[in-house]
Amino acid sequence: MEHNYKNIIVLGAGESGNGAAILAKQKGLNVFVSDKGQIKDNYKKELTENGIEFEEGRHDEVRVMQADLIIKSPGIPDKAPLVKALRDAGKQIISEIEFGYWYKGTSKIIAITGSNGKSTTTSLLYYLLKNADLNVSMVGNIGVSFAKQVALNPTEWYVMEISSFQLDDIKEFKPEIAVLLNITPDHLDRYDYKFENYIASKFRITRNQNEEDILVLNIDDPEIKNYLEHNPIKSKLIPITMSDQNLTQDEGAFMKDDELHLKYQGEDINISIHDLALKGRHNQYNSMAAGISARVAGIRKEKIRESFSSFEGLEHRLEFVATVRGVDFINDSKGTNLNSVWFALESMKQPVVLILGGQDKGNDYNEIMDLVQEKVRAIVCMGVDNTPIHKAFDSVIKNIVDTASADDAVKAAYALAEKGDVVLLSPGCASFDLFKNYEDRGVQFKQAVREL
Q1: What is the pLDDT confidence band of residue 78, given thresholds at 50, 70 and 90?
Q2: Is residue 1 part of a domain?
Q3: HSE of 428 in the Cβ direction (CA atoms, 13 Å)?
Q4: DSSP state of 286
Q5: Domain span including residue 374
Q6: 327 — phi, psi (to 5°)?
Q7: 136-193 pLDDT tens trace
Q8: Binding residues for ATP
Q9: Is the domain of 170 the same as that of 255?
Q10: Binding site: residue ranges?
């Protein structure tokens, strides 16, 4: 499709906004970046070095309204008054991944979305392709933005982690392979508190796919299953499931007798779960999704086997930190919703001292109640307001302690733990009350463990 836009405004100067601006500049387009907040120093430097004009702390609405194309950062909600005004004026608004797509040439995209496990699956799949010597980059919500990669270092394959926010403003964007891991309630404030709107947003990944394109999806997930029953999808479906009984076709990934099977084009690769570097049931889903996508991308079974056993997991995602006098410490700071906490607890074999809390997005702690009762010895709260946690667990857990820093939380958890226990930081909340972000929280946690 022809794109004759000349005057481009990028709203938001984070990783994705800057990536879009750099690509626009490279293509000789007139681009201006506008950020209502303060732009981080590294991004400001990047804009200056690329000769891109920008403003911060305000939006020059007159100038923004003159644009013939708006590229909106995923963090800016549709409710924002400026976005509403732009839509009312009939302005074309797209996301950075859409803009990157216009210029990607003949490269192929594998795009991964879902409520949980995106980063792990994306990293594992990137590793599988890289190890097989494909010319590949990892972009999107993890690492470099897609548009920036297209501008500065284009590759033949893009393994991309994408959120529902990025999918909300696509028009033509189409991955050759799309992966949908699971759907659980998250970010509902952006979807009028309607779960069905969030589900539809995730399925937008298939919007432009046709019969030649692949959709790898978890058919054990009730929301995914339900959506498929009521909505036609053109893509060729390749299911992943825990039980081969659910596999009604010849292709897909499943678990059987402690073995992971990848069936594609008449070949069945089986790998023992003991040979997988990633442990835990939720990681079996992530491994199935990455493995079957790698098969579709043409990776041979020897390479897949080898990469599965040598892959090292992600920082801040069920990351083993240290054992201190018989107590294991695990950093799952990236677990910012209760579904993540559920997965983390579900994969623990020892009794748990759980560090929980932060900026609560209206959590319903009943979601994890059964696992907490079954596995958790004590809870250490780490947030400015821990009332919701007390309200949920005071009657079922004897020891619940309040702390207001990573250091205090680690000391309190260590004091409550017995030899053979695991101290698990899996907050189930955003980190913005006490920390810059989940990475900062994880780093402070690991530092505190090392100082015990």
Answers
A1: confident
A2: no
A3: 28
A4: H
A5: 319-450
A6: -110, 125
A7: 999 998 879 999 999 999 999 999 999 878 888 999 999 999 999 988 766 566 656 6
A8: 114-120
A9: yes
A10: 114-120
